[in-house]
Amino acid sequence: MLNYLSFGVAGGLNRACWGSYKDGFYEPFKITKFLRSIFFGFVLSIFLYLFLDFNKMLPINPALFMAIVICLDTLATESFKTFLRSKEENKYLWPSVNKLKIRSNIVTNKLLLLFLIITLSSPNFWTQIFSYYCWWLAISGF
Question: Measured between alpha carbons, how far is 89 from 78 in angstroms, rounded to an integer?
């Protein structure tokens, strides 16, 4: 398990370094944002390991494990920034215009947003991720 946790933290570190590089030209470096991705990588790697262990999908290639952690961290962070963040975005060079809308009205109720995000994305997302993984295993000969 420690091996997988280290690759999960490495995935979080990869995401943190890339985010710092990407945003470095437009906004100042913030240690909290940097550490957030490393922390998410650690926490997500625990949940991913438990999920894979429960479904008898271990052992898994550590590089693939790290890539899935990076994807999950990106999904969590960007979903938060797109749907749940409510701070003023005029200060950004590219403000987010991808707010969730129902009948051309932006949804502002946080509980409704959270419910819709979880309901609409979770089952299909997890099913596709692991069906693609199983398909990859089948064609790669592992």
Answer: 14
d(CA 29, CA 136): 38
Produce one character per residue of 64-89: b if its CB has 16 or more CB atoms within 10 Å, e if not: ebbebbbebbbeebebeeebeeeeee
Give the chain's domain count.
1
List helix spans (H) across 1-142.
2-23, 31-54, 62-79, 110-140
Residue 84: which domain range? 2-140
Residue type, 39: F
C-alpha triplet 35, 36, 38: angle, nearest 5°: 65
CA 57 to chain centre: 20
Dump pLDDT digits (tens) for 69-80.
888 888 887 777
CA distance 142 to 137: 5
